[in-house]
Amino acid sequence: MLWLSILVLMPFDLFILDSSVTSDASSQHAQRGFTPLAARIMALCQDYLKHPGAVREMAALLLARLLTRPDMAAALQDFLRWQQQALASTHGPAAVFLLPGVLQTLALIFKLGRREQLLPLAPKTWLQLAELLGDEGSTTPNTSVSRNTLARKLAMKLVQRVGLTLLPPQLAGWRYVRSAADLGRNLGVRSDCPDQCSTAVDHAPAKAEDISPQSPTVHEVPEQIEDLIGILLASCSDKDTVVRWSAAKGVARLAGCLPLELAEEVVDGALGLLSPSEPDTSWHGGCLAIAELAQRSILSPDRLESVTSL
């Protein structure tokens, strides 16, 4: 699987390399949109997605690299149709392993693929994912991720990558940036010389309203982003740490691509997890989210007082 995942990265059309494509069958293969070799690789990987362990991960990686090739657009559509039918028809123990395999494949596709290729697919993928995440009362493992920790973690990865595909591929210009980050300069001020303290100032803006956007272009935020961030914030209270951490990363990554006003609302949502009435899992997930926001320079200096007071 790993060897094949490297071979599919070759910069040549698979129609040229597939020896099974003959002149008599050229029209038939052209109508399908992908070669018999690609079809065999897809069938092999789809079968291994139901297996536990490293073979499932390699099958997901191979599928993602194959389906994100520029000449495999038809195969990608075929896989999306297959995975919906497979999740709906697979039951029993196989469904427990198939769901993480499909989610991991989709997450890798949205990681490796080009935005112009994935943008038309993002709304449909989000609708399917919202149905899986919202079906908490389901009794069948293949239609609910509530009892599958790995599936919930991979779902958070997919949620944030769908959101990043929907948003413009640029970081917000209002993010907090230090103009002087020299540790030697900061430590150069002697404690016994208070008059020098005024010279070691951080020239970064102190308040969010002092940060002006650097990019003059204003992009419209898709309507799905609010629901995507809502699910990520809710998953910061998940019972499993790996899910909370993945959700916290997704919150910060999406907030970094939003306008200032919407990003401030995301920060308020993360701070809302630190309410005294919330359980320990919410506090832990909220701390993770705030840490990720601060790491990506999204938490403005004027919000530090409200954070430290908690």
Task: Provide a descriptive summary of the structure in words.
The chain is an all-alpha fold and 310 residues long. The chain has 16 helices and no strands. It has helices spanning 2-7, 14-17, 26-32, 36-48, 54-67, 73-89, 93-112, 115-118, 122-134, 149-166, 183-187, 224-235, 241-255, 260-272, 280-295, 304-308. Helix 9 (122-134) runs antiparallel to helix 10 (149-166) and helix 12 (224-235) runs antiparallel to helix 13. The chain starts with a helix and ends with a helix. Mean pLDDT is 80; it is low at 135-143 and 189-216.
Can you give me a brief rundown of this structure?
This protein has 310 residues and is mainly alpha-helical.
Mean pLDDT reading: 80
Instruction: List how many beta strands DSSP finds.
Output: 0
Order of helices and strands: HHHHHHHHHHHHHHHH
Assign a percent range to the helix content.
55-70%
Determine the oligomeric state from the structure: single chain
**Which class of secondary structure composition applies to the elements?**
mainly alpha
The coarse overall form would be globular
Unreliable residue stretches: 135-143, 189-216
Number of separate helices: 16
